Amino acid sequence: MTTALPADRAVVRTLVSLKLRLLANGLRRSPGRRAVYLLGSALGLLFTAAVATAVAFLHGHAGAGDAAVLLAAGLTLGWAALPLLLFSGDESADPTRLTMLPLRPGPLLRGSVLAALVGPGPVLSLLLLAGGAVAAAGGAGSAPFAVVGVPLAVVTLVVLSRSVAAGNARLLSSRRGKDFAIFGGLLFAVLIQVGNLAFQSAFGRPGATLDLSPIEPWAAALRWVPPVAAVDAVRSAGDGAYGVAVAQLALTAGLLALLLRWWHVSLRHLMVTADSSTLVRTRGVRGSRAWRLLPDGRAGAVMQRHLRYAWREPRAKAAIFTSIGMALVFCVLSVVQGWASVYVVAAGGLMLGLQMLNLFGMDGSAFWMVAASLGTRAQARDELRGRAYAVLAYAVPVLLVLGFGLAAATGQWGSLAPALGLTLAALGSGIALGGLLSVLAPYAMPADGSPMRTAAPGQTGLVLVNSFGSMVGGAVVALPVGGLLLWLLSVDGPAWTVLVAGPLYGALVAALTLRFAAGRLLERLPEILAATVER
């Protein structure tokens, strides 16, 4: 036992030094990237300090303690969710990288806790929670509880994040885990919008009187949830309820002990249990009746391949559900904030048209097999047409659901037909420009398969050209249908005819543009092959 203790301390020191080395290596980049890294870190620190100062200035206002509770609750949600969404972004949080080393779970746990406390995340959280503690303080009696509660909350947040990562390590490294990260990211974005609405309802318009009363019910429900309770203990002590404050600290300490136990068990399980993904399983062959509904020939085969990518490839799935989530959030916000119109669904047509962008970047180095089969203009046209059909297969049903939902929420059933016609015209225009930009401005996708990265390093300019070109260009191309709709509404004409004219116009624009892009595709095959492989 006496010989094991120095070795255990060496493991702890090594893990902490490794984390410090990772942070230092972040500065060993090209001068441009190093400058961006330092500038981003400085701006993040200044922004966090400004938020913490603004919260601290709430001291003395009614409801300042409630604001501190919501701040701590938001940090708790972020620390718990980010490992599930950005697991691949922090290599030091992946315990599976150490499974082949002769390490015991105890020293590994202690070293991991100390290493996790090193970095910008805990520092920024400490600043924010300190600002919340100042806002919630109510006298000298609050100071000891702030000194104990704020660091206890920070440690609990860090341990919560790492225990979630360790408990789901093998899940998060699998394809299903990446799928979960996609849906979790959408949910997280929706929750951010809900928080934004709550903030607007609490603080109102600029210049309005500060009113924190709307957040009181939320704070009352959250103040006993650890580690939020450790921050609220400062308010309880300021009110003279020292017993309640001690109980809140004890509750947070109890959660910290449970999280450490969970983390310890997860590390032991990872060290001694084989990964189930390495086991051989036999599965039945799924039926293919659904694929029989697709068109015959090359276009149908390309459509099937693209839809399989959309279901199996995490990056493709992330892009699709991000567009759907953005369109849904945009429609919901229009209803909640009172400016809803059934015509808002047209923005969803432009957003879903983005799925036609960078068609060949998702193939990566495998695009050479597609390129080898493209010998004629008809084959190139069928390749683009099949991918457009795949986008339409899921975009049109989603837009119909959003349109009917907005009509039900606003009662504007009479405008549903022209709104859907305008939406389908925008979708067709986006598909047309997306196919053309895929040929003229392709870019490489990241080779690591991360669903949270949309392009390889150095491709930001091309991503912006594609995105803005499709959105803005699609809106411009769809202007004739918008002009027709405005004219029909001004003369009280049959606006429902836009439901016929819009899809026909979108289909015509897409067909003509893809025909032109097919010829360019044959000419630019070598350039596309070189551009879509990450170096």
Chart the SSEs and their pairings.
Elements: H1 4-25, H2 31-56, H3 64-85, H4 105-116, H5 120-136, H6 142-167, H7 169-172, H8 175-203, H9 216-222, H10 228-238, H11 242-272, H12 297-312, H13 314-336, H14 345-352, H15 367-372, H16 377-410, H17 416-440, H18 460-477, H19 479-490, H20 498-523, H21 525-531
Helix pairs in contact: 1-4, 2-5, 3-5, 3-6, 3-9, 3-10, 4-11, 5-6, 5-10, 6-10, 6-11, 8-13, 10-11, 12-13, 12-16, 13-14, 13-16, 14-16, 14-17, 16-17, 16-20, 17-18, 17-20
Describe this structure in words.
This protein is an all-alpha fold and 535 residues long. 71% of the residues lie in helices and 0% in strands. The chain contains 21 helices and no strands. The chain has helices spanning 4-25, 31-56, 64-85, 105-116, 120-136, 142-167, 169-172, 175-203, 216-222, 228-238, 242-272, 297-312, 314-336, 345-352, 367-372, 377-410, 416-440, 460-477, 479-490, 498-523, 525-531. Residues 277-287 have low confidence and may be disordered.
Rg, rounded, reads 27 Å
Largest sheet: none
Q: Tell me, briefly, the overall form.
A: globular
Share in helix: over 70%
Contiguous uncertain segments of 5+ residues:
277-287
Number of strands: 0
Number of helices: 21
Q: Cα distance, first to last residue?
A: 50 Å
Beta content comes to: under 5%
| SSE sequence, one letter per element | HHHHHHHHHHHHHHHHHHHHH
What is the mean pLDDT? 80
The secondary-structure class comes to mainly alpha
Quick structural overview:
With 535 residues, the protein is mainly alpha-helical. The protein has 21 helices and no strands. Helix 8 (175-203) runs parallel beside helix 13 and helix 16 (377-410) packs antiparallel against helix 20.
